[in-house]
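User: Before I run my own analysis I want an independent prediction to cross-check against. Here's the chain; please return only the structure tokens and, at the end, one sentence I can use as a sanity check.
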Amino acid sequence: MKKVLTFFKSVKLTIFLLIFLAIACTIGTLLPQNEPPQVYTHAFGSVGAKLINALSLYDIYHCSWFQFLLVLFSINLIVCSLERWPKTWRLYRLEKKVIDKTFFEHLPLTTHCTTRLSLKEAKEKLLGVLKKEHGELSTVEDNLGLTFHLKKGHISYLGPYIIHAGILIVLIGALISSIFGFSGMMFIAEGERSNTVFLEGRRHHQLYNLPFSLKCDKFVVKYYQNGIPKEYCSYITLIDRNKRFKTTIKVNSPLDYKGYRFYQANFGVASNPTIHLEIIERNIGKKFYVTVPFNREVSLPHNLGTIKLVNATSDFRNLGPAFLLILTRPNQKKKEEIILLSNFPEFDAMHRKDKYVFVVKDFTRYTGIEVRKDPGRWVVWLGCLVLIGGLMVSFFIIPQRLWIRLEPCEKGCQVWIGGMAGKRKHAFKPIFAKWTRKIQENLNG
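Assistant: Structure tokens:
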């Protein structure tokens, strides 16, 4: 057990863990997380991709070895804190009861004066002054006189432990998020509802069912003139048992609900889309419209025949959404294939010399929503606040001690004043001078 404790309280172990955690966090920041395997193969080659997969670097914050480092660092922090606690507590509670003249000779800051007040009068005067300092005041009387001991800012000795507690809370929050949190995607077609999340990272190919559902009422996308998406958002109805409410999920405007956060990530053509076509007669410019569900033959007006949507893709050769339709004309056995590009309405008119031109006016889209669950987030924020509080206590509060010894003499009272600070001694000198001046002014009227 002694060897185990020696190992866990080692400063070398602390440095080792901090270095490896820093390396892991750097990798997690620079290396794209939760990407498909082919992305890593393309970027780093087959050997690099195998190494990334073997070490779970594609989802580093949820992998087992990263969790092990967090647990080991937490144990190291706890053991180191407990090892040094008794000494710190003794320093925190230190209070010298027996004070004589020689004690003041060993203090870093000291002064001596005489007052005409009696011992009783000087005691009352000093009590009035010292009680205003909002410190911990004690009085000890003996046969030769009495001693005041004022202690302020001694909570500063506990600053490192408050910092350690803050770090420990942050680590606990990180572990909670690492074990119970996840990141995944939802794909919801317009008009449909779903509660299924496709998990990413180490839980790839796993599904997670939300305790509520999202319904995509409408997906809206606006484009620049060059066809690049300018703005897109999902109009959502959230259904939680008998509770329903409508909301909007936009890029950079996520939805938070019951510990889950929903981001607008991407969009595309639904798996079984319905498209709305505009058919234009070339010679006279006459237009008429028809709705074509997926894989169903629809009769066209003016005895043009039937049309059927057989395939659709969200991106055809970087040209955007594309649709493959089969046109069957009356009294003709041969069927004609028509390719339509949503982002290029003139595509059909340029590539076919038919009397009628087909243009895609609208189609059923799906919305891609990224779902994240981070149950340890608020624990981490709490740890950060505790950590900041510990830093402020450690760096901005000075542990100060003041001793005042009163002994009666022929002319009144002799007064010895001494003080010391546990740290930042240069900053304590003007404070001690201020105390001394105030005490002398009160004793001498």
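Sanity check: The longest strand covers residues 207-223.
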